[in-house]
Amino acid sequence: MKLKNKIVVEILGGLGNQLFQYAFLTALKKNNPNHEFYIDINRFNTVDDNKGYQLEDYFNLGLVPASKEIINELTDGVNLISRIKRKIFGLKSTFIVEKGRCFNDDYLVVNSDAYFKGLWQSELYFKDVRDEILEELKSGLNIDLDLKFEFPEKSVSLHVRRGDYYSNESYFKMLGGVCDVDYYKQALKLLESKIQDFNVIVFSDDTEWVKKEFKFLHDYNVVYSSNQKDIEDLILMSRCEHNIIANSTFSWWGAWLNQNPEKIIICPENWYADATQTDIIPGEWVRI
């Protein structure tokens, strides 16, 4: 009996990035139904990536970690000798590294073994499996949520990301300063032109800084989320009617999981500080 080809997707980063990689894997499953699928979570054993591997903490998704043997088999092509062998014998590498930050449909159909290393931050990879993702995340939730929160009507989530965007020099150069105070002022003014009497729920990893610097919030009905778990904030964001997000994959997912058919999602025009081209932002979201 012919053995099935294997596909491995590396999981890395915080919860938002991990959800992108899970969603990409879900799309691969649909497009390559005869493959076996695995994840590689070994990075979390060697690199301090935010809070570690969180998908398993919050969801039962049936993701199978690849064995050391499978990972070695599929990543063997990284070293120089393997590259020379491929050149001589015309072999194709099974180790696939995402190039650029834009959608590439060539990645979605695989005719051999493959190990995928990348961020896959585009809805275009998994838009066709949105319903499956929503259902899996809903039915797979494996924790008891303690949402100490009285949900106001006509709610708007407003996410302010600071933390490592400002404490980590490389992150700051890449992502810091994009969503400044003026961005949030403009976003709220834009919402006011479309809806009235809404309530703002602020989500931030530095609430005290927001209270000090966002004086304009005094003009609105504001509630601050005080949940201790990332998953609780993520779910609260998704239950708001509308969303104002930061250039953060965490609030991106809070907005994308929002199932309000009339939702307004406001996001920054540029995701990266250097305006690197990306298609992380869905076409119907409002950029400012």
Automatic annotation (TrEMBL):
Keywords: Glycosyltransferase, Transferase. InterPro entries: Glyco_trans_11 (IPR002516). It comes from the Bacteria. Transmembrane segments: none annotated. This is Glycosyl transferase family protein. GO terms for cellular component: membrane. GO terms for biological process: carbohydrate metabolic process. It comes from Vibrio parahaemolyticus.
